[in-house]
Amino acid sequence: MTGAPAADVVIAGAGPAGRSLARACAALDLHALVVDPRPHEPWRNTYGAWAHELPADLPADVVAARGRGVAIARHVHELDDEYTVLDTAALQTHLTDPAVAVRRGRVVAAVPAGADRYPGLRLDDGTTPTGRVVVDATGARQVLACGRPAGGRALAEQTAYGVVVPRDVAARVSGDRLLFMDWRPAHGRPGWPTFLYAVPLDAERVLLEETSLARRPGLPMAELRARLHARLRGAGLADAEIPDRPADVEKVRFPVDSPRHRSPAGVVAIGAADPLVHPASGFSLSTSLRLAPRLAAVIAEALRGGGDPAFVARAARGVVRSPRARTVHALRRRGLETLLALPPAEVPAFFDRFFALPPAHRRAYLDAREDVTASVAAMTSLFGRLTPRLRAHLIRGTLLGARSVRTEQ
């Protein structure tokens, strides 16, 4: 290798996945550099996770609210696990380590490792900061990938439109409960089903969000907004009680079935770029937080061993994409296709059966990232609880994928 790299680990993307890995690398005395076009911009997304999924060392002030949730399909299900809503600003502060170097810049591509050069980032200003290993944490855009497969179909997306209201106003809609999912079509609009997600942001504010779990392509924001407003009016809220200011509105859109990252030599992808997004739930934050220390330790060991950039990146990919993780992810992708192939009217019935599973099976399907046996057991248990009609749809979806999914709204 000629010249000296800018850092041991160069990370494109200053979101939770990139920041958590940079922080974990700094804790092991690795020189980490984060590059992002707006590295200090406040995060605005709402992050939630089941309490048992989060790292044990997460500071108490990062948790904004918690509670045992309720899921409503055709029946009401009191959930055993505690759901946690994070304080986004506190999480960003926690993951921002002053020992990590930060550079403002827009990344346009990767510079692959070569026989005599370190891998790096190509920025729009023409510069190319290099590292002993490069990490793509740019999310579903996969900026550092070698291009997407040609002729691919539209991605399945999770979309949502939400408003933040005072707790007493939200209680008239949610019954002052943490609603993980409420599939009742109280919006009165036909088409692909959506559910209400109602979670406290703190002691005084609640997010009410109309959510499309997965659809190819995702439901438009205008449709989700219309459904949420109709749902809230149906619960007795006046128009003046339904916020429309940007500061009180949350819009969500991200793919849940991004293609596998085609990584250049010396580059490894993490977070939604890999992707680590759960295809059936859309969750990825807790996985990124838990994986960061383990991934940093593998990178540090490979670097201490004097490995070349391609070797270091391969070692890191072995953590992110272990054979067991790939197998579980493939099973979950098939579960996504099954969901997309269901007739809209059958989706609530499907979730009635899912939330009736024993807690261990639900946790395995949602969280057992590398436990193939537990994942298969959960899916088998779910299949055994389905009605004959739902089993027929599941088999059809497994064999044909979502080619039969209707495109109505």
UniProtKB/TrEMBL annotation:
Q: Which keywords accompany this UniProt record?
A: Carotenoid biosynthesis, NAD
InterPro entries noted in UniProt: FAD/NAD-bd_sf, Lycopene_cyclase_b/e
Q: Which Pfam families match?
A: Lycopene_cycl (PF05834)
Q: Which residues form a coiled coil?
A: none
PANTHER family per record: OS02G0190600 PROTEIN (PTHR39757:SF5), PTHR39757
Family as reported in the entry's similarity comment: Belongs to the lycopene cyclase family.
Checking NCBIfam families in the record gives: carotene-cycl
Can you say what this protein is called?
Lycopene cyclase family protein
Q: Which organism is it from?
A: Actinomycetospora chlora
What lineage is on file? Bacteria, Bacillati, Actinomycetota, Actinomycetes, Pseudonocardiales
